[in-house]
TrEMBL record:
PROSITE patterns: UPP_SYNTHASE. GO terms for biological process: polyprenol biosynthetic process. Binds 2 magnesium ions per subunit. One of its GO terms (molecular function) is ditrans,polycis-polyprenyl diphosphate synthase [(2E,6E)-farnesyl diphosphate specific] activity. This is Isoprenyl transferase. Catalyzes the condensation of isopentenyl diphosphate (IPP) with allylic pyrophosphates generating different type of terpenoids. PANTHER family: DEHYDRODOLICHYL DIPHOSPHATE SYNTHASE 2, DEHYDRODOLICHYL DIPHOSPHATE SYNTHASE FAMILY MEMBER. Signal peptide: none annotated. It comes from the Bacteria. HAMAP family: ISPT (MF_01139). Its EC number is 2.5.1.-. The active site is at residues 12, 60. Mg(2+) binds at residues 12, 199.
Amino acid sequence: MPGLQHVAIIMDGNGRWARQRGLPRIEGHRRGVSNVREILKVARDLKIRTLTLFAFSVENWQRPPEEISSLMGLLEFFLERNTRELVKNKVRLRVIGRPEELPEGVQKKLHAALEATKDFKDYVLQVALNYGSRTEVLDAVRAFSEDVAKGKADPNHLDWPLFSRYLYTDGIPDPDLLIRTSGETRISNFLLLQCAYSEMFFSPVFWPDFGRQHFIDAVESFHRRQRRFGKTGEQVTEAPTDEAALNR
Ligand code: FPP
């Protein structure tokens, strides 16, 4: 679909979905994982080339240990059950965050899935794991400084295209649309720099219930909007956006 290549999602509301039904929180996460499969299918049907899902934040380590280990177990389960499907559909898996700090079992499954899908070019499933935007900026600044010290980078020539190569999302276009479910209207340290020009869609629906039609509604809302990238409404209809101006 022209204009919509990348959708990023903050999948929120699993806990409240479960509480409303008198179920343990983990049941909400379990339903959340099965919804990931459904949304993957819809995104593919709509030919959206990149889907980014916020699965575990750097702040999520503060949750009760039982919930963290259940979430890690679900991630392993998801990777084990879906790698074959990703290969079949030619979807490349990518991870953003600090996966090296995840439990070994998750890392192993991740590694296998990343390897199995690494050559696919058309579709990308990007999973944010142990991710935080501020951590990403710190990691990027550290890597850039190291390159400066080695004489491989010049701070006098630092511009956005160069700096963005040090972000976890290197090579991936910015999200066109950011969806957050569950009625919360925050970005919560997710892709803060990459969402500089993204359209936002906040849905009141809890993630386990955010199905095909909800996703399509979000996409349709995106297509009704006019993206101005700093220009006036009249200019946008008259001339294409100057990419260079956005990259200063
Ligand atoms: C937010 O709900 C959800 C999470 C912190 C975890 C999201 C993870 C998954 C859906 C599963 C793993 C993902 C993949 C890609 C397999 P919450 O617990 O904050 O809900 P609440 O705000 O209602 O308590």
